[in-house]
Amino acid sequence: MDKILIHGGHPLSGSIKVSGSKNSSLPILAATLLTREPCVVYGVPDLSDTHYMLQILMHLGAQVERASGTVSVTAEKIQSVAPYDVVRRMRASVCVLGPLLGRCKEATVSLPGGCVIGDRPIDLHLQGFEALGAAVRVESGDIKVFAPKLTGAVINMHGKFGPTVLGTDNVMMAAVLADGVTVIEGAAQEPEVVDLATFLNKMGAKIEGAGTRRIIIEGVPALHGAEHRVIPDRIEAGTFLVAGAIAGKEVTVKRVNPEHVRAVTDALTRCGLAINVKDDAISILPNGHASALDLTTEPYPGFPTDMQAQMCALLSTSKGTSSVTENVFPQRYMHVAELKRMGAQVELEGATAVIDGVDCLLGAPVMASDLRASAALVLAGLKADGITEVSRVYHIDRGYEHLDEKLSELGAHIERVKAA
Ligand code: EPZ
């Protein structure tokens, strides 16, 4: 397994172009299953997760071509069974259930594995399918859904931890070909949900209200092919802004939608850091030490859970005592033990991390555990004294397009050591 070595203490400066959104690409690629006509998706990032999704589409029978960020999919004849050995690698594979149910009126998809950020139930997805008239069975590790026909319904997608992003996506993709009108109450408002709805409407769907808590879908008989460019990855943008906050003189992220990153830029401003926004570029001008902050993760437009680990890395060397409360995935603290190996002073109290900022962290061998925790450890290593060695970097490659190369372009002394 590859490792990444970071030689701390080298300031970052310059700009990077943000890649297309992983969390927009995955459901949009799944949505190409809803038509037999060709679709073209632009700006798909080169990640393990997008690679896995294309493998699933091909396994289901779609023709797939990829030329750098441009992916063409023609799902003319498809079967509706996605077995464990292709689904097991990525939990987000669950978002092929909705389009398969919508198109084929049946689907069998292996239950997604759990993951280190916590329990990943899909009860709300399945309740949504049942509300549309599907029969749902879970047997020998597979989810089987079947519906002689799908009929529009009023469905609430709000669970005890708030709305579900992929649940909203899945129900929307099943409802676009249902008879009648579906109303999704308590819908997720993430920009990636809006991007999916935009793509579906380009395919001939009739969806209104995406981005609000209430999405209305009028079913249509069939969808046609479409072309679409995915939105920029707001979490990658936020990750580089935090890198700038930790180790930068001035760092600019380009090709980003500032509105999508507002909760992160607001948090960095509250830390006392200067942020400049100009068109599709955001710059951060750190002034030495950030100050402490009390932070709570919330569904969009609140502070994103996918940026929580990165902020913990920043707050570990911010003056004062900070608290970070994780409301979306309360167990999402795999990065804490590794940050403590680097000298961070963090105590977990349930879903809250209390962080006493230290002057600086010390480089150490640390282990990546999930996508965003891994990024947080790389960020912490940027300013730590000495060398930080992050192992199991395949976690990073799942969701960041060439993270180490982009940080090198900004001046980081970072190298990837290929596994022997
Ligand atoms: C999406 O996951 C993202 N993944 C996650 O990003 C992100 O952390 C998450 O949304 C929250 O924003 C993709 O878009 C591919 P949820 P998703 O369903 O949709 C509970 C990353 O790092 N829940 O919105 O799977 C669930 O346990 C990844 O890029 C139920 O209770 O997350 C969680 O506590 C990690 N029942 C909360 O809702 C359900 O049926 C939000 O989960 C579904 C979810």
Task: Write a compact overview of the structure shown.
The protein has 420 residues and is of the alpha+beta class. It is built from 14 helices and 26 strands.
Helix/strand layout:
Blueprint: E1 3-7, E2 12-17, H1 22-31, E3 38-42, H2 48-59, E4 63-67, E5 70-74, E6 81-82, H3 84-87, H4 97-104, E7 106-110, H5 123-131, E8 135-139, E9 142-146, E10 154-156, E11 158-159, E12 162-163, H6 165-175, E13 181-185, H7 191-202, E14 206-208, E15 215-218, E16 227-229, H8 234-247, E17 248-254, H9 262-270, E18 274-278, E19 281-285, E20 294-297, H10 308-315, E21 321-326, H11 334-341, E22 345-349, E23 352-356, E24 365-367, H12 371-383, E25 387-391, H13 394-399, H14 403-409, E26 413-417
Parallel strand pairs: 2-17, 3-16, 6-7, 10-13, 20-21, 24-25
Antiparallel strand pairs: 1-25, 1-26, 3-5, 4-5, 7-9, 8-9, 11-12, 13-15, 14-15, 17-19, 18-19, 21-23, 22-23
Overall radius of gyration: 21 Å
Strand tally is 26
CATH architecture of the largest domain: Alpha-beta prism
Number of helices: 14
User: What's the number of structural domains?
Assistant: 2
Oligomer: single chain
Strand content: 25-35%
Share of residues in helices: 25-40%
How can the largest sheet be summarized? 4 strands, mixed
State the end-to-end CA separation: 8 Å
Outline: globular
For CATH, the homologous superfamily of the largest domain is named as Enolpyruvate transferase domain
Overall pLDDT level: 95
Instruction: Classify the secondary structure makeup into a structural class.
Output: alpha+beta
